[in-house]
Design brief:
By secondary structure, this protein is of the alpha+beta class. The strands form four sheets. A seven-stranded antiparallel beta sheet has the order 3-2-6-9-10-5-4. A three-stranded antiparallel beta sheet has the order 1-11-12, with no helix packed on it. A three-stranded antiparallel beta sheet has the order 13-15-14. Helix content is about 35%, strand content about 25%. Flavin mononucleotide binds near residues 19, 34 and 35.
């Protein structure tokens, strides 16, 4: 049966790998290196690894002659480096390098780094298979970059897909995004309440100040619309109360067109609430990895973009302020 090389490549792509950059130094002292995902472990004792290099690679002679090479397992934030070391550009330009065995170049910022002595080189079709004995290695505490289906990815712990957490009919509502969003929001708000009480602010006050923080100055009518998103109907008394405490400034005669602006004391309080909120948030995500937190934010932004109709204004931000949810 004839093998279609395109389909073969694509089938191989369903095997998730990490990504490495393998480097060495050629005989005239030039640094060489390329992006490699054929890296694998071979033996623990003695410690040995392998990788394969396309015979048509311009780096082939350097790796065959050098006798030593370094393998860098890339960290999750190094996909640009992977692209650079598979491109025609000057791969090492501007990089801060360290030097290893026989002056081979060592890259920084990776998840792990192995310096190896070449012990065998086998032919493997259109590739050469390099086997190296590890002479030293370093392991850094960084999440690794993953390569799957021709795309860069990150590894997160597999979610429970068994449905065991919510498998009774009475639990069904607890597995909706709406329930989970609302409950998360509620838990975070409850933790903020002692700070609001300390500042002698009601929930409504905090909504008004938060809306103003993004849109100051604006008219009373616009502010009422923004605060209305929280479900609270702002009143003239609310504004008077905050103005009496010098947290907001009111300009012009009362009514819908009155201009409302955050005063200096109001800005101070908003910053105070923001820093307490940040501490609450960072405690709430303690059990998530950095990668999971970034992934969660990315997913929420996608949902926000998707659920916002094209004709719909951002409900939390006035168009004139130009602040957009990204
Ligand atoms: C994710 C990824 C994995 C790669 N893995 C290998 C590999 O294992 N072996 C290899 O020879 N080339 C591999 N390549 C291709 C080389 O990095 C690329 O062809 C490079 O341009 C070779 O340049 P050279 O001719 O200077 O060696 C990979 C490229 C990418 C983007």
């Amino acid at each position: 049966m004839a093998i279609d090389s395109q389909q073969f490549r694509s089938a191989l792509g369903s095997f998730a790998t990490g990504i490495t950059i393998v480097t060495t130094r050629d005989k005239v002292g030039r640094d060489v290196g390329l992006t490699v995902n054929s890296f694998n472990s071979v033996s623990l004792d003695p410690p040995m690894v392998l990788w394969s290099l396309a015979k048509k690679s311009q780096t082939r002679q350097a790796f065959l002659q050098a006798g030593y090479f370094a393998v860098h397992i890339l960290a999750a934030d190094q996909s640009e480096l992977a692209t650079r070391f598979a491109s025609r550009m000057d791969r090492f330009s501007g990089l801060v390098l360290e030097r290893g065995e026989k002056e081979i170049p060592l890259l920084q910022g990776c998840a792990a780094r192995f310096q190896c002595k070449t012990v065998s080189c086998y032919e493997g079709g259109d590739h050469d298979i390099f086997v190296g004995e590890v002479v030293s290695f370093e392991h850094f505490d960084r999440p690794t970059l993953v390569f799957l289906g021709g795309r860069y990815a990150v590894a997160v712990e597999k979610p429970d897909l068994s449905g065991q957490e919510t498998n009774t009919s009475s639990d069904l509502g607890r597995n909706t995004l709406g329930y989970l969003f609302a409950r998360t929001y509620y838990h975070l708000r409850v933790r903020l309440r002692p700070e609001l009480a300390r500042l002698n602010l009601t929930e409504a006050d905090s909504f008004i100040l938060a809306a103003l923080a993004l849109n100051s100055p604006c008219t009373a009518h616009e502010l009422a619309d923004l605060v209305g998103v929280s479900g609270y109907q702002m009143t003239q008394q609310d504004m008077m109360r905050l103005a009496q405490r010098n947290l907001i400034d009111l300009r012009g005669s009362g009514g819908a067109d009155q201009v409302v602006q955050l005063a200096d004391a109001g800005t101070k309080i908003v910053l105070n609430i923001a820093s307490v909120s940040a501490a609450i948030e960072s405690d709430a995500v303690t059990d998530l990895s950095y990668t999971e937190i970034e992934l969660l934010k990315q997913m929420l932004r996608k949902i926000i973009r998707r659920t916002k109709a094209p004709w719909q204004k951002d409900p939390l931000v006035l168009e004139s302020s130009g602040v957009e949810v990204r």
